[in-house]
Amino acid sequence: MDNPQIQLVLQLLIAVVLGGVIGLEREYKKKEAGLQTYALVTLGACLFTIISFEVFNFFASKSGISFDPSRIILAVATGIGFIGGGVIVHREFRTEGLTTAAGLWTAAAIGVTVGLKLYFLAFLAALFTIFILIVFGELEKRNFLKK
């Protein structure tokens, strides 16, 4: 990994794969936000994180310039919160889209984690996300949605 360009490509690829795997589960359940949406969210969050730290590294040697790359995490969380808010719908006595919004929020966090090169944490979070969506989803369906 001596070539920084290859490192960046691999980071973006890992983000796309992790988001895509989560999105596949959503596709399987025939949800509106699926493979493309989740892959794009993780890719975008990873890319914003990489850009932020690259800009920080560029300005780190310049005197008189203050730059906090961690602010990008707040910006990603706020932006994805806005998108998540758009997928939540209230119909009659039900609310739909909460799991999708939470999944997109988590996917963005996974993308940021990959952008920070915390690969083990990103893989673990993706694994937990898939576990929650599959296992907890099945538990809810079997135990709480009986009529």
Tally of extended strands? 2
| Integer-rounded radius of gyration | 17 Å
List unreliable stretches of 5+ residues.
none
Elements, N to C (H/E): HHHEEHH
| Terminal residue distance | 55 Å
Share of residues in strands: under 5%
- The amount of helix comes to over 70%
Order of neighbouring strands in the sheet with most strands: 1-2
Main beta sheet, described? 2 strands, antiparallel
Number of helices: 5
Gross morphology is: elongated
Query: How much is the average pLDDT?
Result: 89
Number of domains: 1
Structural class: mainly alpha
Write structural notes for this entry:
The longest helix has 25 residues, at 4-28. The chain has 147 residues and is mainly α. Strand 1 and strand 2 (94-96) form a beta hairpin. A two-stranded antiparallel ribbon has the order 1-2. The model has no long low-confidence stretch (mean pLDDT 89). It is elongated, with a radius of gyration of 17 Å. It has one domain (4-62, 70-143). It is built from 5 helices and 2 strands.
